[in-house]
């Protein structure tokens, strides 16, 4: 057996028996080795051996499962070689092959195959691929929405966000709630609880939503009180600032009163106090500008800003307004729940018809097998659990509630054979609905392991990966930043890392480099700084460790860590400019892999060569040797045709060869499977051989193999033929599904560039966390419909005037989601910094670094800690690390640069440097060399260049037009905009524009027949139904309207087959209607947008009506001013509605007359 030395905690985790065990394993603590050793010890236990096939080991990924199986096999082989006569060990090596070591999804699928009859599912079901599942989801959703729109409450919900007559917002909400519920063990009960939360009469202060808002308010008040206290201490120590004390004292008294109201949960009183309080102004101090005056003023500004945030984001409604909102929302939530339930039922039925299931189906159906409605284990669960002597779960911090219940059902009756291992500080898969709260709850409930006590927790805190300097820096950063409020973990002595390996190596301090971009190119950010740092460290021979001791660093010792993939190319380019090899591990799907994209484009061209974009992409790809100049020549050859038509007209030998190849492949595509067609493309273009010669050739070839295998599988799934395959491929791409690309390995000597998520589980001698100022992605918290596991559903509502407003439940959920997102970002930062073995460097670019540091220093004044509230308000890694730097004893120069030399400092033995640099300082100054011409230009070439550059662009007249034109903008060039006025100004009388607006509102919504009979009654109806403002209604020109109602035009409008009022459109019309154009450009399409006051439709003909309230104009002046507008309306409406406009009429209310507009073609 192995002679490996284990720490006391590791040995305890390996040997402990008799009860549930949770192992909280820190980074680099050898958790996988412990898991393997525990499994081997269970199998080889002389007194109570466990057969390998009676182990259930669940991992997060298939790769991790195979790694575990392989490592256990190696250990069993070692044991068997030491005891070759042991038949039991030899048998275990065979049984290990069928042992349940897999992901939870794979195990659940195995269960369903075994017990399909218990669930009434087809025995030959398969896993739904992403494209098929996406298509079925969309089709089912469309069918469900059609039926749900018969529900008035659902229509009310959909109309909140779908005012553009789009199903999209409602559809997104249905799918989001469905997907969220699929992660819960009892989704129907959870959905019912969400509905019931809106069907009580509890005041806001007594609801879960109110609790979140009150806690946020209390935290804010506590933070403001600290700011005021700090300011008052400064004022008390500086007599010249005594005039400021009165205002600060009044602020302090107000906040004390507010804190008491919040503690008493007196919501309305607290709201009234916050909304009405106006912080008093400081009394002026003349003739003095020194000391802490600026700091006190900055603290007061921060105090006022915090109060304003409370007004705008916490105290947003009264108790009465909340009750009204809840009453309005309740039926909509019920309707949404009905829609989700209908979708769930129909979608599952459709999947069963297709004999396919999704991963979430595997888990839910498995739970039906194992757990009854009362939460008790079923008979099948008892049978299965008796088949396992140990249930071991790796990466338990990334478990959801459904999976946690499955593990309990598979364990023995008292759960004593459960073994969980994970690290909640590395829970970074919230987007996959993982819940770190499950791990935290068990960690809190379970006692610290003692002999014989269970359930218990064992902490593995010794890090065997990183050097002592890195461990000290990581502990310092997270002791300062991480807390229960931000990170979900109190980073105490129990959570901190301990050095596992004795070593005198010292890689130096944590380096924070802040690039000042106030005068530089901000687009490239810190890319040049990062590249120069790598160059300098390699040149200086920075020492790193390896198995043989210390050595100078190489390029492949570096890893650049980024939050997202968006800037990979910028960092790779910066390294390339310095001749440094780089490898960007994107982790993207092979569908978007650079080697596969040309093949997809070529297949699209074979299917339909009329697609210019894909044809151009194919010609310019490595498949062929065409250049941009070749495509330019083709376009000049046939400027008004498609690119394919230009190819057919060309006599160029290279073009003719391509056309011949394309004809042959198109002919074969009708009878040849897609995978065979791909093979043929590889053969005739030598593409497969060519990609093998590139830097990442092995990975590129594997991605091409994956694509051809995907094409073969698609054909077997019923998507035969090239066209069918491409439709299937489009569905897959639209679904956003990810198919892992082939594992690419960096070439020897390459700098690695990867996302933090991609780096999880890896390690590098030198890690550079770059672009640390990248803002956290909180876009999901801005959705109008929000979901939360404990707070349920929150909706925005729409006010009568049409704008959305946030409700208390929505605001509470948004605050909770924001806090959870920021907490996960803290854990992501932990993952990033713990990748380093020997050296940590953090860089970011900022255009105002001193201002940033001054603001942070102001918030830190008077304390030696960064408060949980302050940390939680920051939205990027850079701000967090700047807080740490400002408090670190080694960063005195940084503090002095922003006037914060008196900040209280951390008590730490770690080392850190922080500096603001510019690229001028980074790079050596280069001397400008004047260009001296030493040769005369070629006269013929120069003349040809002048001629070509002087040639007028044939499309130049079109370039003077914007991409989209407004009809009113064309017809009223130079007119001043009409701005809405406050209500009190209406007392001074209406402007002409406002009178016109009132008349248009009446004409848009009025029932002309009813108005003819009783005008006042019709106006009253419009006001009551909020179609017309009451103030504007009083100012309507009744005589003019009555005269209009008696006109032939009004009669025609009442008798028209269809009357479109305020008809908005956007369409393409010939350019000749917009501006003077050369004859060859008159029919080029131009987008035009406008709103016609009225369109009278009678069969295939139409009349357009335009109301005018202008005074003092004659009929001729109206025609001169508005004929062009009406002709644009005519062209657009004829094209849009497929009718013939036979009349255009201007109706002047000032003249009470119709004006016929002459029609022009």
Please sum up the structure shown:
The chain is α/β, with parallel strands linked by helices. It has 48 helices and 29 strands. Strand 26 (about 1085-1100) and strand 27 form a beta hairpin.
Key features?
50% helix; 29 strands; alpha/beta; 48 helices; seven-stranded parallel β-sheet
Can you characterise this structure?
Helix content is 50%, strand content 13%. The protein has 1161 residues and is of the alpha/beta class. It has a seven-stranded parallel beta sheet with strand order 3-2-6-7-1-9-8, sandwiched between helices. β19 (785-788) and β20 (792-798) form a beta hairpin. Mean pLDDT is 86; it is low at 924-933 and 972-989.
Q: What is the topological layout?
A:
Elements: H1 8-15, E1 21-25, H2 31-44, E2 55-59, H3 62-82, H4 87-95, E3 100-103, H5 104-114, H6 116-119, E4 126-127, H7 130-148, H8 152-161, H9 168-181, H10 187-196, H11 208-237, H12 245-263, H13 267-276, H14 293-313, H15 319-354, E5 356-357, H16 359-370, H17 379-385, E6 390-393, H18 401-410, E7 418-422, H19 436-445, E8 447-448, E9 456-460, E10 462-463, H20 468-481, E11 498-499, E12 510-516, H21 527-540, E13 543-546, E14 549-552, E15 558-562, H22 568-576, E16 582-585, H23 597-607, H24 612-620, H25 628-637, H26 643-649, H27 653-669, H28 674-685, H29 687-691, H30 697-716, H31 722-735, E17 751-755, H32 756-759, E18 764-769, E19 785-788, E20 792-798, E21 804-806, H33 808-833, E22 836-846, H34 849-860, H35 868-873, H36 877-887, H37 892-897, E23 912-917, H38 919-922, H39 939-950, H40 956-959, E24 964-966, H41 967-971, H42 992-1005, H43 1008-1013, H44 1015-1024, H45 1030-1034, H46 1038-1045, H47 1048-1055, E25 1058-1070, E26 1085-1098, E27 1101-1108, H48 1115-1137, E28 1140-1148, E29 1153-1157
Parallel strand pairs: 1-7, 1-9, 2-3, 2-6, 4-5, 6-7, 8-9, 10-11, 12-22, 12-23, 15-17, 15-18, 16-17, 18-22, 24-26, 27-28
Antiparallel strand pairs: 13-14, 19-20, 20-21, 25-26, 26-27, 28-29
Helix pairs in contact: 1-2, 2-3, 3-4, 5-16, 7-15, 7-31, 8-15, 9-15, 10-15, 11-12, 11-14, 11-33, 12-13, 16-18, 21-22, 23-24, 25-26, 27-28, 28-30, 34-36
């Amino acid at each position: 057996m192995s002679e490996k030395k284990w720490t006391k905690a590791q040995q305890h985790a390996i040997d402990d028996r008799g009860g549930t065990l949770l192992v909280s394993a820190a980074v680099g603590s050898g958790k996988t080795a412990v898991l393997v050793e525990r499994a081997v010890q269970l199998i080889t236990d002389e007194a109570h051996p466990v057969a390998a096939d009676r182990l259930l080991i669940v991992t997060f990924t298939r790769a991790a499962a195979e790694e575990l199986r392989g490592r256990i096999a190696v250990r069993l082989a070692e044991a068997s070689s030491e005891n070759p006569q042991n038949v039991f060990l030899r048998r275990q090596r065979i049984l290990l092959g069928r042992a349940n070591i897999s992901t939870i999804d794979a195990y659940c699928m195995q269960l369903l195959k075994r017990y399909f009859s218990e669930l009434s599912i087809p025995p030959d079901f398969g896993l739904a691929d992403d494209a098929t599942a996406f298509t079925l989801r969309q089709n089912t959703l469309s069918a469900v929405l059609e039926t749900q729109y018969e529900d008035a409450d659902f229509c009310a919900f959909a109309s909140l966000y779908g005012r553009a007559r789009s199903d999209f917002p409602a559809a997104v909400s249905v799918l989001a709630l469905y997907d969220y519920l699929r992660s819960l063990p009892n989704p129907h009960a959870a959905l019912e609880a969400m509905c019931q939360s809106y069907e009580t009469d509890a005041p806001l202060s007594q609801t879960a939503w109110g609790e979140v808002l009150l806690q946020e308010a209390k935290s804010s008040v506590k933070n403001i009180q600290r700011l005021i206290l700090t300011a008052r201490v400064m004022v008390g120590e500086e007599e010249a600032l005594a005039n400021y004390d009165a205002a600060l004292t009044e602020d302090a008294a107000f906040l004390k009163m507010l804190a008491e109201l919040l503690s008493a949960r007196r919501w309305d009183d607290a709201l009234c106090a916050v909304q009405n309080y106006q912080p008093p102004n400081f009394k002026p101090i003349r003739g003095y500008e020194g000391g802490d005056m600026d700091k006190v003023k900055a603290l007061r500004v921060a105090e006022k800003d915090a109060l304003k945030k409370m007004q705008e984001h916490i105290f947003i409604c009264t108790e009465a307004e909340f009750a009204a909102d809840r009453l309005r929302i309740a039926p909509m939530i019920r309707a949404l729940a009905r829609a989700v339930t209908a979708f769930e039922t129909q979608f599952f039925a459709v999947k069963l018809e297709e004999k396919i299931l999704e991963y979430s189906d595997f888990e839910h159906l498995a739970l039906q097998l194992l757990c009854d409605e009362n939460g008790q284990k079923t008979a099948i669960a008892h049978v299965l659990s008796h088949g396992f002597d140990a249930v071991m779960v790796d990466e338990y911090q990334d478990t959801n509630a459904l999976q946690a219940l499955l593990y309990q059902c598979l364990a023995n009756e008292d759960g004593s054979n459960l073994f969980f291992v994970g690290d909640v500080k590395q829970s970074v898969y919230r987007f996959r609905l993982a819940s770190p709260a499950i791990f935290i709850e068990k960690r809190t409930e379970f006692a610290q392991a003692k002999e014989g006590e269970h359930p218990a927790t064992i902490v593995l805190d010794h890090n065997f990966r990183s050097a002592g300097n890195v461990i000290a820096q990581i502990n310092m950063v997270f002791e300062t930043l991480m807390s229960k409020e931000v990170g979900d973990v109190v980073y105490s002595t129990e959570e901190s890392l301990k050095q596992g390996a004795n070593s005198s190596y010292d890689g130096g301090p944590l380096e924070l480099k802040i690039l000042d971009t106030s005068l530089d190119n901000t687009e490239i950010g810190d890319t040049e700084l990062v590249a120069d740092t790598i160059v300098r460290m390699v040149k200086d021979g920075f020492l790193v460790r390896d198995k043989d001791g210390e050595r100078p660093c190489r390029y492949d010792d570096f890893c650049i860590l980024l939050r997202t993939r968006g800037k990979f190319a910028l960092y790779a380019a910066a390294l390339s400019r310095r001749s440094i090899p780089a490898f960007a591990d994107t982790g993207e799907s092979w569908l978007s892999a650079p080697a596969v994209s040309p093949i997809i484009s070529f297949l699209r061209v074979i299917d339909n060569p009329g697609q210019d974009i894909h044809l151009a992409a194919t010609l310019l790809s490595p498949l062929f040797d065409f250049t941009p100049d070749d495509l330019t020549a083709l376009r000049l050859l046939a400027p008004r045709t498609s690119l394919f038509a230009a190819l057919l007209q060309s006599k160029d030998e290279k073009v003719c060869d391509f056309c011949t190849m394309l004809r042959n492949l198109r002919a074969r595509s009708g009878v040849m499977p897609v995978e065979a067609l791909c093979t043929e493309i590889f053969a005739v273009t030598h593409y497969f051989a060519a990609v093998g010669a590139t830097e990442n050739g092995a990975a590129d070839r594997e991605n091409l193999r994956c694509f051809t295998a995907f094409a073969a599988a698609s054909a077997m799934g019923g998507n035969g033929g090239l066209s069918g395959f491409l439709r299937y491929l489009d569905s897959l791409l639209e679904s956003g599904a990810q198919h892992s690309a082939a594992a690419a390995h960096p070439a020897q000597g390459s700098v690695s560039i990867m996302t933090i998520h991609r780096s999880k589980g890896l390690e590098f001698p030198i890690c550079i966390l770059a672009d640390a100022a990248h803002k956290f992605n909180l876009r999901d918290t801005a959705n109008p419909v929000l979901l939360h596991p404990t707070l349920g559903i929150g909706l925005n509502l729409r006010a009568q005037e049409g704008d959305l407003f946030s409700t208390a439940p929505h605001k509470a959920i948004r605050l909770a989601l924001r806090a959870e997102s920021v907490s996960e970002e803290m854990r992501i930062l932990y993952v990033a910094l713990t990748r380093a073995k020997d050296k940590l460097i953090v860089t970011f670019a900022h255009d105002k670094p001193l201002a940033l540091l001054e603001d942070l220093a102001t918030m830190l004044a008077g304390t030696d800690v960064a408060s949980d509230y302050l940390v939680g308000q920051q939205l990027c890694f850079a701000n967090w690390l700047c807080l740490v730097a400002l408090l670190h004893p080694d960063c005195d120069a940084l503090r002095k640069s922003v006037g914060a030399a008196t900040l209280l400092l951390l008590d730490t033995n770690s080392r850190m440097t922080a500096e603001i640099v510019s690229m001028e300082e980074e790079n050596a100054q280069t001397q400008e060399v004047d260009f001296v011409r030493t040769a005369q230009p070629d006269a013929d070439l120069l003349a040809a260049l002048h001629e070509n550059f002087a040639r007028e662009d044939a499309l130049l007249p079109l370039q003077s037009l914007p991409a989209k034109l407004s009809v009113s903008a064309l017809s009223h060039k130079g007119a001043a905009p009409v701005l809405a006025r406050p209500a009190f100004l209406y007392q001074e009388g209406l402007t002409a524009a406002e009178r016109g607006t009132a008349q248009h509102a009446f004409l848009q919504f009025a029932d002309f027949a009813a108005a003819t009979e009783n005008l006042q009654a019709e106006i009253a109806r419009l006001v009551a139904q909020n179609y017309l403002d009451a103030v504007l209604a009083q100012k309507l020109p009744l005589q003019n309207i009555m005269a209009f109602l008696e006109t032939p035009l009004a009669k025609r409008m009442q008798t028209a087959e269809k009357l479109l009022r305020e008809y908005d459109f956007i369409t393409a019309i010939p350019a000749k209607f917009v501006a003077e154009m050369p004859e060859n450009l008159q029919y080029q399409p131009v987008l035009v947008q406008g709103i016609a006051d009225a369109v009278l439709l009678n069969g295939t003909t139409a009349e357009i009506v335009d109301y005018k309230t202008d005074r003092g104009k004659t009929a001729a002046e109206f025609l001169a001013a508005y004929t062009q507008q009406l002709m644009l309306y005519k062209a657009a409406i004829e094209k849009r509605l497929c009718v013939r406009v036979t009349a255009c009429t201007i109706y002047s209310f000032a003249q009470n007359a119709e004006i016929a507009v002459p029609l022009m073609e």
